[in-house]
Design brief:
The chain is mainly alpha-helical and about 150 residues long. It has a domain at about 40-90. It has four helices and two strands. The chain has helices at about 35-45, 60-75, 80-90, 105-120, and strands spanning about 45-50, 55-60. β1 and β2 form a beta hairpin. α2 (about 60-75) crosses α3 (about 80-90). The termini are far apart.
Length: about 150
């Protein structure tokens, strides 16, 4: 090996580095392999048999989960009711825009901008919590506490 290359942190030996035009995964992902999202969606669409009253019918697993969640909510399960209502809200309000429905005038926008600047601005100096006046003259404050006083 040449003497000008130093092996160390983030500098692996040249022999173990990838060659130009080759990656570390030569065979790659096998064709037809599904990701988690595809597997999950496929699983939720599978049909199962459920009994409703005296009848037995086939529904998707997704539909079964929704029916079970609704049944638990009707029985008084607060967590199930909260989950179900959360899903309903998210699905029915998915198309809602975050923009205000009312057009604001230039004065209104200026007021809002000034308010947000004041809310996000950092204070230039913070007063010493032990000093009641809140006035800072830029001089360091002596650390005067009962434990630091020397008794002569």
């Amino acid at each position: 090996m040449s003497g000008d290359y130093e092996v160390g942190y983030k500098k692996p030996p040249k022999a173990t580095q990838f060659k130009k035009g080759q990656s570390g995964n030569r065979r790659g992902r096998p064709k037809g392999t599904k990701n988690l999202k595809a597997d999950l969606l496929e699983e939720m669409q599978e049909q199962i048999r459920v009994r409703e009253g005296n009848r037995e019918k086939k529904i998707s697993k997704q539909r079964g989960i929704v029916k079970n969640l609704a049944a638990q909510a009707f029985k008084g399960n607060v967590r199930a009711a909260n989950t179900l209502l959360g899903y309903v809200y998210r699905l029915t309000h998915a198309d809602a825009t975050t923009e205000p429905a009312v057009d604001l005038s230039g004065d209104d926008l200026a007021i809002i901008e000034g308010f947000t600047k004041r809310r996000t601005a950092k204070p230039t100096s913070s007063p010493d919590p032990d000093h009641n006046s809140g006035v800072s003259n830029g001089q360091p404050v002596a650390d005067v506490h009962p434990n630091n006083l020397s008794h002569e």
